[in-house]
Amino acid sequence: MKKFLSVLCLLLPVTAQADTQALQKAIEGKHRSEANVARDTYRNPLKTLELFDIQPHHTVVEVWPGGGWYTEILAPYLKKEGQLIAAHYDTTDTQAPYRPDSRKGFEKKMASNKVYSAVKVTSLMLDEKTGTLTLPAAKSGTVDRVVTFRGAHGMYSRGVLDATFAHLFDILKPGGKLGIVQHQADPHQDWMSRNIGYVGKDFIISAAAKAGFVLDAEGYFNNNPKDHKRYKIGVWQLPPSLSNLKTDEEKAPYKAIGESDRMTLVFVKPL
Questions:
Q1: Is 65 helix (H, G, I), strand (E, B) or coil?
Q2: In this structure, what DSSP letter does residue 237 have?
Q3: 42: Cβ–Cβ under 8 A, 6 or more apart, which residues?
Q4: N or C, which terminus of the chain has less Cβ within 10 Å?
Q5: 127 - beta bridge partners?
Q6: Most distant CA pair in the chain: distance in Å?
Q7: 3-state SS of 20-32?
Q8: Would you call 173 helix, strand, or coil by DSSP?
């Protein structure tokens, strides 16, 4: 019987999955900045990327990677077998004044270390007046995973959430997945009247469903029950921004809260 089961196991297909050891090695990489490493306790990169089921051979699009916090981890993890596409702001995108400099800073970082040599930097740009796509992140049906971190509030406030989700659905292969981490509003909290950084979870799920996605998984390890979400300037009053707070005494209560309460959702493009 044991021999039969052993033969059966050999015949059954092996399901690929995220390589925990390789992910941990990337997280512990010496190329990562001390400031970014210090945030691991709040961002839980290992659990997050495992939930997103990012495998070493995947083609992954990171949407608007900012300063490259997750790029530091994804670049070495995907370098040998896969492909990381960093879909950043375009240098011509002045719809928000910080975007060209953000892109230039990211490109400077990519040139600073050979660990980033295989990263493909592209642009994802949408016309915020019409809500239409102008520069695609990747070609249709070519991507295994798309990830976006704390960016959905900006997509909504700039009027491009539906168009962005539709594009992300289009570039994914059938069976591909979209991983989202986003500051999570409380039920019945007013987050629509002004951009406070928080977005309702049901709203995100509905927007993803509208684009054709199906909710596949949810993680709770990025939740923070200390975050009461009622701040004068929104989520940016918390670490790491600590905006408009000058003294250590002013910063102390917000540091005690830590980073925001975040939803972690995985959506799949049906086969």
A1: coil
A2: G
A3: 222, 224, 239, 258, 259
A4: N
A5: 132
A6: 70
A7: HHHHHHHHCCCCC
A8: strand
Tokens of 196: 């406070």
- What's residue 15's pLDDT? 53
Paired sense of beta strands 132-135 and 125-127, if any: antiparallel
**H-only helix segments in the chain:** 2-11, 20-27, 34-37, 40-43, 45-51, 71-78, 99-110, 152-157, 161-171, 201-211, 248-257
| Mean predicted confidence (pLDDT) in 146-169 | 98
Q: What is the pLDDT of residues 196-237, one digit of tens each?
A: 999 999 999 999 999 999 999 999 999 999 999 999 999 999
Dist CA 62 CA 179 (whole Å): 10
Polymer length of the chain: 271
Is residue 5 scored above 50 in pLDDT?
Answer: no
Whether the link from the prior residue into 13 is cis, omega within 30° of 0, is: no
Record the tokens describing residue 82, joined without a space. Answer: 């896969």
Residue with tokens 């695609």, as numbered in its chain: 136
Alpha-carbon distance of 126 to 254, in angstroms, equals 34
* Lookup result for tokens 């709040």: 42
268 Cβ contact partners less than 8 Å away, ≥ 6 residues apart: 175, 176, 177, 178, 213, 214, 216
Amino acid letter for position 255 = K
Strand (E) positions, 77-151? 83-88, 120-123, 125-127, 132-135, 143-149
C-alpha to C-alpha distance for 123 and 189, rounded to whole angstroms: 33
**CA distance linking residue 270 with residue 266, whole number of Å:** 13
CA distance 68 to 65: 5
